[in-house]
Structures are given as C-alpha cells and as structure tokens.
Amino acid sequence: MSTQPAGHYRESHPPEIEDLIDAVLEGKATAEQVQRLRPLLRDDPAALEAYVDQARMHALLLWRHGQAGPAVVPEEPVAAPTIMQIEPPPRRWRIGWRRLAVAAVMLLSVGLAMLLWPGRVSDGPPVPEMLGTVAAMRDVVWGEGQTALATGANVGLQPLSIRSGTLRLTLRSDVIVTLTGSAKVQFLSPMRMRADEGQITARVGPTGKGFTVESAAAQVVDQGTEFGMRVDRSGRADVLVFEGQVDLLRSAAPRGTAGSTTRPAAALRMSKGQGLHVALDGQVQRIVAVEGKPGTPDWVVGGAPAGGNAVIARVEDNLRDLEGGAGNFYRIVHRGLEEDAPAYVDRCYEWNGVDASGIPAELKGADLVMTFNSDKKTPDLKITVTLARPAALYVFLQASATPPEWLVRDFVQTPLAIGLDEGPPDMPHLQLGQGPGQSIDRPFTVWRREVPQAGAVTLGDNAPAKSMYGIAATPLP
Amino acid sequence: MPELNPTKPDDRSDETRQAMAEVVRLLTASQSNLYAYVCALLGTSAGAADVLQETNAVLWEKAGEYDPARPFMPWAYRIAHFQVMAYRKKRSREKLTFDDDLIEQISDAFRRRDEGMDRQLEALDGCLNKLSPRHRTVVDARYRDGQSLETIAQQAGKAPNAVAAELYRVRKALMECIQTTLAREEGP
C-alpha cells in the first residue's frame, strides 16, 4: 500500500497543516498552534477534510488496539439480564442511572448474565463489545460463581473461570484461545487478556497480531504465532512459543541488570521452540522440556506428568544456559511416533516409514523426543533422557553418517530404518509428503538399547551429518 | 412506531423487546464511529471515552424516542454532539481546541464521509495487513503499545517530527484503503 505524501490537501496547502493536525491529535498543540489551525480548517474545505480523515483514523486505530479506554469506570458490580431478558430499566435505576444505564447497554449487547467489574481501569473500549464465542469445550467444570456457558455463547469483558477441563474460545480479533485446567482470566479488550491463573494456548491469525496475555510477572505480545502461557496463583508465568514469535515483557527488571527492579525490563523476542519461566522479580529461567503433542493445548511444562504411563519422563542437556536470552525446549510426545510425526522442535520435518510398509511395528506408538536439528553440529553435546520405567531406548541416526563412538559403545544397530521427510519453510524446494514412503529425503538407521530400570541415560553429540539424531522409547514388557 | 420508553417497565410486548434489541444492536455497532466522531469534535482523544459513556447513557435513556423507520446514526451523532458541547462547558476556555462554529463544520464534514457503522473497523484490519513491515511497526508502537512519538523516534533513530509525518501518511493511506475496500464491497 502506497503511503506517498500525495493528496490534494498536501499539494494545495502548506506542509504546516500536517504538523498542526498531528500536534492537536497528539494532545500537544500549543495555544499558538491551535490559533493557526482554526482559520485553516474554517476557510479551506480540503484542510477540514484532511483533519476529519486524520482524526477519524487516529480514533479508529486507538479503538482497534484497545487503547480507547475510559477515564472512569463503573463503581459497583451490577447484575443484569441476559439478551433474552431485554426489558426497560427498572425504577430503582433512577439512583445513579447514568452509570447503570451504560452498564446495562454493555451487558445487554454481550449477553452476559453477570458483570463483575474489575477494580482497575481497563484499557479496552468503554462500551459493549461481543469479543467472541465459545467454540468448544471438553470436560469443563466451571469456576465458583461462573455462569455456565454453552457452545456458541457470547464472550465479553467478564471474568471467566474454570476449575478443570478444556475451553476453547474464538475471538473476533482473529485469535483462538484455549484454557486448560484450573484457569481464571479476563478479557480487557479484544486484543488483551489478563490471566490470574491457568494454562492458555493462543493461536493468533494475521489480523490478531499484537494480541497480549498478561500476568503479574509478564506480558506476552504476539508477533504472529501460536504460544502457550501457564500462570500460577502467584502470577509467575511459563511462556512457550510453538510457532512464530512473541515479545516477552517482564513486570520487573531482574536484579543485576540495568534499571531498577520496579521498572519493566527490556522486551525479549522469543521464537519457535523457546520457553522461559518468568519469576515475579523478572528473573527468567529456561524451560528445558515440554510434554504434549504439537498443535494441542494439552502441554505440560517440564516433562511428563507424574503417575502417568509415560516412558520418557524428562529430557535435559548441557547447553543453552541462559545469559539473558531465551532458551529452547525439547518436546516430549507421549506415544507420538506415528506417520508424519514432527521430528524436530526447530524444523517442520516429519518422521515416516521409508517405504509403503510404514514405520516399523516395534517403533509405532513410541514416546518421541523432538530434538533440535540445529544441534547436528554442536560439539560436546550431552542429552540426558530420564526414563520413567524399564524401556527400550532408540536413537535414529542419519544412514550416511559414521556412527559416533558413544552410540556404537552403548547401543546396538537394528536392521530397522525410518525416514525423514523434509519440506518448507526450511527447505523451500522440497514438499512434505503424507503417509509412509512418500517424499522421504533421508533414511535413518535405528539403534537400540535396553534400559532395565527407570533412570537417566546420557547421549552424546551427533555424528557429522545433515540432520540431528532422533530419540524414542517404548516400554519393556 | 412501537413504544420504547424505557421508563415504562410494564410495556414488554414482543414488539418492544425486538425494538429494544435493535437499539442495542445499533448502539453496539456504532461505538467505534461515535468514538471517532467525538474525538474529531474535541480535537483529542483525551476525554473522548467519558463523552462516549455519557452519550451511551443518553441514547439508552432516550431509546423510546428513536424511530426505527429512520436511520440510527444521525440521531446518535446529534446526541453525541450535544454531549460534546456539554463536556466543553465544564472545561476552561483555554483548554478547548475548537470554537462552536468550527465544531459545527467538523461535524458536517465528518458526517458527510460517514462510511457506516463498524464496517470501517472491519475494513481497517485488512488494510493494516497491507502495510509494509516498517509502517506496521510504527503503527503498532504508537497505537498498540501506546508509545509516544519521542520514544518511537528515539528507537528508530529519527526526529519526532519525522515519525509524526510518517504516521500522518500511514493514517491517510489507511483511510484511502478503507474507502476503497468499502466501495468495492458495495459494488457498482
């Protein structure tokens, strides 16, 4: 879209008009500037039109980004009818009717059963807005005082809480928000959500870029992505980027950095595969591993939940210690090894059977660790896999590579093979196939080690190769 | 015209309920436009949200006077105009940007270019996506992050007036894009 400084008012009026309009709209015009602007607008229709266009767009942009907040908020919670109970205000509204009437309009339009107005100034619009709808839910137990919502129900600026289950909301701002487990949140505007507790997965479409989730410790500003945020009751946050990028703003600067602890720290740009734990004092710590299938909201920070039937409990390495930057997390996918399973956290490649017979039966349904393809040339790498039970541990090595010493020493090569399907955006000239034997770009050999007791096994660095090795495990009978 | 007077709670016919629901729908859809209108008349966004709240309250109070057979926006603009004037009376004269006559002119110009309800806001999303990354960054910094021109300029290594000029051009381009989009939707 062209933004060249052309236009009839630009050509027929002194450039001063733009400066004057800017100064007025920014609220910084001096008395002298206002005095100069008035006759220009009064006497020149084109200048007046330019002002109106600029004022309108300035206001729409403020509105669009949730910055048109009220200076005054209603003072008290107000019970209100739902949209199905529309009726004129009752007589008791004569006391303080103005604010109550405003609240009524808000509530009628969004179809809420109850408004618990927050005790703080919202940065969202001061007016009714239907933000989105309940798209789906699974095993939801509603929080105390929370009105049960049906699929398709409107969602507005009200607090929202669930005790357990999964609740998916589709917002008009091109954002899909999924709440999991015990969660207490509130939308402050179409583009901003406050999380007091809970696990949130947000998939943000192109027009939702800028969607923000905030907790006491951190704000996560989407930059076109899918991200996860887990907030505990004290406000500490785990932030994970599953696709694209986010900006992480901490509420306090960590000790030992420039600036005081009461000032926000500099933003951290986080990319796909990176995860950080943010403490209330602004300190950040790398999240090393996340359990859960990509594309689902059922992820668990740290690894597999205790007491489950997972084979791989945790993964750690000797790299990526934080130095003020963002860390990377391994992804553990319980029973994740299947056709077209994502192979790496930092690439869009997939595991498949090398031919139509598919992934070997011995490996199907194995717990899978998505490693970092970018670690393929990392020297002195140590990856420690903690097994939750006796297991067969597998390493997939690119077939053309010379097996490293640690692999030959600790593992046995099997006659099995598995294939890697590479594709865009990392390999734009290749296409991802679907199913076994389709578009296999690199065959991998399969190495096996029986581990008779639960515990940790340490793997070494990759052999010189184009791709990083993969890790999987199955339970021993 | 159906009876819509909200001070008469006994009148709850289906027709009244439907008419009230229609007022709520129209009021909801008109919010961004009314906010822009108030901003333009005041000359600033400061105080605009308060004026809009008062406007909403009066619109709701007078819902019974609204004739569904007539367009909603002229009626809503008229009430918003009154609220702007009432707000101005509470302010000292030196804090006012425009005089009464100029406000009339601005109001007329704004309403001549009324593109209708929240369609502008919908079109704006598509137009924002057409901005170059550089311009989108400036818009995000100013309107999403609420940064001052000085802060944006400092981060970009530019003078504040250069950033202001850039934002001016971006707003102009967005306005033209919205008009083009809406004209295309309406068709020949």
Q: Topology, pairings included?
A:
The complex is a heterodimer of chains A (about 475) and B (about 190).
Chain A: H1 8-12, H2 16-25, H3 31-43, H4 45-64, E1 78-79, H5 97-110, E2 114-115, E3 132-142, E4 154-155, E5 159-171, E6 175-189, E7 192-204, E8 212-214, E9 218-231, E10 237-250, E11 268-271, E12 275-278, E13 284-286, E14 289-291, E15 300-301, E16 312-317, E17 330-333, E18 341-342, E19 350-352, E20 367-370, E21 383-387, E22 391-398, H6 405-410, E23 412-421, E24 442-451, E25 455-459, E26 470-475
Parallel strand pairs in A: 7-8, 14-17
Antiparallel strand pairs in A: 1-2, 3-4, 3-5, 5-6, 6-7, 7-9, 8-9, 9-10, 10-11, 10-12, 12-13, 14-15, 16-21, 17-20, 18-19, 19-23, 20-26, 21-25, 22-24, 22-26, 23-24
Helix pairs in contact in A: 2-3, 3-4
Chain B: H1 14-29, H2 31-42, H3 48-61, H4 72-90, H5 100-112, H6 119-129, H7 133-144, H8 149-156, H9 160-186
Helix pairs in contact in B: 2-3, 2-4, 2-5, 3-4, 6-9, 8-9
On the 0 to 100 scale, the average pLDDT of chain B is 79
Low-confidence stretches of chain B: 1-12
Straight-line N-to-C gap of chain A: 63 Å
What spatial form of chain B do the alpha-carbon principal axes imply?
globular
Radius of gyration of chain A: 28 Å
Number of strands of chain B: 0
Extended strand count of chain A:
26
Fraction in beta strands of chain B = under 5%
Number of helices of chain A: 6
- Taken from the alpha-carbon principal axes, the silhouette of chain A is elongated
The proportion of residues forming helix of chain B, as a percent range, comes to over 70%
> Which structural category do the helix and sheet elements of chain B fall into?
mainly alpha
Number of helices of chain B: 9
Could you tell me how far the N terminus lies from the C terminus of chain B, measured between alpha carbons in angstroms?
34 Å
Oligomer: heterodimer
In this structure, how is the largest beta sheet of chain B organized?
Answer: none
